[in-house]
Amino acid sequence: MASPVRYRKDGHVARVTLDRPEVLNAMDLRMHAELGEVWDDVEADDEIRVVVLAGAGDRAFSVGQDLRERAALDAEGAQRTSFGSRGLPGWPRLTERFDLTKPVVAAARGYALGGGFELLLACDIVVAAEDAVFGLPEVRLGLVPGAGGAFRLARQLPLRKAMGHLLTGRRMSAAEAARFGLVNEVVPAAELDACVEGWVADLLAAAPLAVRAVKQAVLRSVDMPIEDAFAAEYPEESRRRASHDAVEGPRAFAEKRDPAWRGR
């Protein structure tokens, strides 16, 4: 049986593809388990500086949970899901990997619904094709957006706007998502890959330890009072300060040359 996840390393870039296009990249337990191994490897490999996450085919990024599998599990009396994935295959999933310091760039084409949308909400940069459609339809299925949608959408949108989508399952176009800052760019589908690669190039041009330090500081401090944020400790910043790269940047500027980042 073919793997539901494609994972390859391309220099300093990890490329992760949800690969079940025949079911619009719906996520079953096997996919979650394999993704968990991927995220472990990404964080452990210091040569990886950026992750690109995409869905196979041109119809969907992902429509979220495999509901046929869920129905079968329910029929067998399996434990029902709620908020979070603790104790389930692939835990902690990307939506709960709060300490993942590598930046994740997502390419969204077609449907990004339910858990698929929740994956995007957990990414750092999202580029959407004009045909992308976002939504959290769980309430129409007797479920809840348990992979963080209820929590992240309310933090990334004005509250009433978020509640309108969460309580009704209404969908959102790519243009609307861009208007509210949920995606970084919207481009024609034919330009999606090129646009994503532009973001990847910009990330690779930056010092990798600085990128990791900034991501960690932002995500850990986002709910803190500013005074507490300044006083907090960020391990990735301590690592950056003690690194070769912290000296290399100013030196390269003074010598009028491109910096040679070592990631250490």
Description:
With 264 residues, the chain is α/β, with parallel strands linked by helices. The protein folds into 2 domains: 5-204, 2-enoyl-CoA Hydratase, Chain A, domain 1 (Alpha-Beta Complex); 207-254, Orthogonal Bundle (Lyase 2-enoyl-coa Hydratase, Chain  A, domain 2). Helices cover 41% and strands 16% of the residues. Strands 1-2-3-5-7-10 form a 6-stranded mixed β-sheet, sandwiched between helices. A 4-stranded mixed β-sheet has the order 4-6-8-9. Helix 4 (149-156) packs antiparallel against helix 5 (159-168) and helix 8 (208-221) runs antiparallel to helix 10 (235-241). The radius of gyration is 19 Å and the shape is globular.
Briefly, what CATH class of the largest domain? Alpha Beta
Strand content: 15-25%
Low-pLDDT segments, ≥5 res:
none
Shape: globular
Radius of gyration: 19 Å
Number of discrete helical segments: 11
The ordered string of helix (H) and strand (E) elements is EEHEEHEEHEEHHEHEHHHHH
Coarse structural class: alpha/beta
Organism: Saccharopolyspora dendranthemae
Biased composition (Basic and acidic residues): 236-264
EC number: 4.2.1.17
Pfam family, one: ECH_1
Q: Which features does this protein show?
A:
2-enoyl-CoA Hydratase, Chain A, domain 1; alpha/beta; six-stranded mixed β-sheet; 264 residues; single chain
